[in-house]
TrEMBL record:
The keyword Transmembrane helix applies. This is Lycopene cyclase domain-containing protein. The chain crosses the membrane at residues 14-35, 47-69, 81-103. It comes from Rhizobium brockwellii. Keywords: Membrane, Transmembrane, Transmembrane helix. It comes from the Bacteria.
Length: 117
């Protein structure tokens, strides 16, 4: 992944890919901690985190799509940068849903206290 100055992008591909990879993990984790601190609207951080992860391939495409002339066509490997994020997105969303469901189950079914018989 070399940066080509003739086709400028918002961010170089390697920086944008790394940034989106890391944010796809950090945003859901921070949403879990933020929702624990809120008294009302605990769903809001989770909604924002879900939307970020769901639309992260689009965000990466916007950040790394080079500026080209109107009559110019992209090369044969133009969309390969999106493949890692397209693979990471469903994994993160499924894992996030499992964690949220387990946290909800723990909150609804508290562990019984150990009372001596």
């Amino acid at each position: 992944m070399e940066y080509d100055p003739h086709y400028p992008t918002i961010l170089p591909e390697f920086i944008a890919l790394s940034l989106v990879f890391v944010l796809n993990i950090l945003i859901p984790v921070s949403a879990i901690f933020a929702a624990r601190r809120l008294k009302r609207r605990r769903w809001l951080p989770h909604t924002i985190a879900f939307l970020w992860v769901f639309f992260s391939p689009l965000t990466l495409a916007i950040l790394t799509t080079p500026t080209m002339a109107a009559d110019e066509v992209g090369g044969p490997g133009g969309g390969f940068t999106l493949l890692p994020i397209l693979g990471e997105t469903p994994i993160v969303l499924v894992f996030y849903a499992i964690v949220l469901l387990s946290l909800r189950a723990k909150r609804q079914n508290p562990a019984p206290s150990h009372l001596p018989s």
